[in-house]
Fold these 2 entries.
Entry 1:
Amino acid sequence: MEKINLPFIYELGLKLNPLAKMSYAGSNSVEIWIGAEDVLSSMDLLFKKFPTLPACRTKVSELENARDEAVNWFRVTEHPEWRKENAVANEIFGKIIKIAKELEIVLSAELHTLAIYHITQKGIYSTTDLIEHAEGILPQHVLGKIGQMAIKEVRESGKCLALDCATASAFHMMRATEEVMYRYYVSVCKPKPARKLENWGAYIAELSKLNQPKVKEVVAMLQQIKDRHRNLIMHPEIVLTIDEAFTLFEIAQGAIIAMADSIPVSSKKKSK
């Protein structure tokens, strides 16, 4: 997935349209040649982003050949003659303009075939932030405690949420929560050895043994997520709506922040 540079498409049109509207008058041969060079340069950049534009490629190839003819004409023609109209120049520069007109039509048609979509905003979250760094929903001090695996899962969850992949977003957020849950369990229960448990129920059972108000609050949050969300997601016939995924995204965010309060900063962070 790549972000589309819409201003670039606009700027390409600003170069192609004036060239297509030109008419050769003898005195503007240099301007036509420069216009063709600008269009070819922009089309080359466009092909790097969208390699599947076959009709445009054909027209661009024709424009390149016409441009080369113009370059050769300049080389063999005395400079004072560049601004004078003659039959050969009329054919060469007239061809450039003709091809530019055809390219404009073809480009407009082929742009309609590109799979370009507008991604709707989710809540107050910036679409760009959700796609590129959704972990920004968590405070910086929390990110220093939950580990790279959890951060990666939150990032994937945000990306899926932005792209309307609701169930996938929830799945990744549950993985992030479970990763943080393990760190929380190790921090407050101090088990020996500090191994991962089989499932959410096992973590909740161990955490429930602690008679601490803050731990009880976290256990209540985790139990709610497990019963109302996590267990449902594990059934393949369940497909979440985007609203359900959005709700879970924020509920899990709260649980992760709550657990992070009792997790020490990782040694890597401390050494910096």
Note: The CA atoms of residues 138 and 253 lie 7 Å apart.
Entry 2:
Amino acid sequence: MFLADGWDEFRVLDAGGGQKLERWKDVTLLRPDPQAVWPMEPREADAVYVRSDTGGGHWEFHRELPAKWTIRYRDLTFAVRPTGFKHTGLFPEQAVNWDWMRGRLARWREENGRAPRVLNLFAYTGGASVACAAAGAEVVHVDAAKGMVSWAKENAALSGLSDAFIRYIVDDCVKFVRRELRRGNRYDGIVMDPPSYGRGPTGELWKIEEGLYPLVSDCVSLISETPAFFLINSYTTGLAASVLDDVLRVALPKGNVSAAAVALPIERGRLVLPCGASGRWTPKDA
């Protein structure tokens, strides 16, 4: 298990009954979480996301909250806010992967004497992009949603990385990778967080069960001769960590692979909240 237990300004206070109670700095949120199948006593929160019987849902606010606020993780700062789809713009469990990538990149830079190049696909609000840039990497950040890319730029600025080398691209990730192959570009690190289902800027259809391996296979051809890592994240229900392990072993047979659930500690008892899965690949000599 990859456990994200390094937070100071974020906590999962409790979970159960299909919900999780979180503290984001000084704001408490109660959100749905299908993994929390055990019981939980009723808990109050500053805002509660209520699901609709017809799909989606809405936030009920029990006190006035700022439109958005910031939260820190180590030397990084992110803007968060309750969005219309129960999310906040940040997946705190990914902090365990931010730390891992930063460690890999710091070692790689020392060994190779230059800034590593990292490709971040389905990059959302840029948690991984900011973390890699803070480690001295040159980052190419690709996401199909213009609003998410703008949010990522804000997070970089909040983290003091406005002048860092982060190239922001609004594009369909599959098409971008194919263009990079034709251009002959190469990357020392690749991270991707593909959705279960989605559409690109001009309606391109994505289904993870059909598109994941072909995309990974294409990305393998983008890896430099001195790679640092390849990281796949998945939040798709039913896609086990062992699937990511298999995908990486087939696509990249020469290397070290580890895959596991990504999780957050819960303050009640000794519980942990599973939050998807990650598969990590490094070269044999890593």
Note: Helices lie at 95-112, 127-134, 146-158, 173-183, 208-220, 241-251.
